Amino acid sequence: MSEGTITVTQVRSAIGAKPKTRGTLRALGLRRIGHTNTLPDRPEIRGMIARVPHLITVEESVSDGGE
Fold first, then answer.
1. C-alpha to C-alpha distances, 28 to 1, 44, 65, 66, nearest whole angstrom
2. Do the Cβ atoms of 43 and 10 come closer than 8 Å?
3. pTM for the model
4. 33, 43, 51, 65: which could join 2 in a potential S-S bond, CB 3.0 to 4.6 Å?
């Protein structure tokens, strides 16, 4: 099973957002507008992304696993 990666970028401010929303952004490794982080494509990460789709953009990439 090859596990891809997800690149998330914060595109909107967390000012005025609820504390849980801000916490989710921090858990994704995002601190400010324009900050990008690459994360493994796992259900936990997908769940966090689903909570803040209005503040981020997502790019997916799949690794071929070398086979």
1. 24, 10, 24, 27
2. no
3. 0.85
4. 65
Per the document, the length of the chain is 67
Residue 7 φ/ψ, nearest 5 degrees: -105, 120
Q: Coil, strand, or helix at residue 9?
A: strand
> What's the sign of the alpha-carbon dihedral 42, 43, 49, 53?
positive
Ramachandran sector of residue 61 (left: φ over 0; alpha: ψ -120 to 50; beta: rest)? beta
**CA-based R_g, the chain, Å:** 13
Residue 10 clears pLDDT 60, i.e. is over it: yes
pLDDT confidence bin for 61, thresholds 50/70/90: confident
Phi first, then psi: give them for residue 59, nearest 5 degrees: -125, 135
**Residue type for 48, please?**
M
Q: What is the pLDDT of residue 1?
A: 45
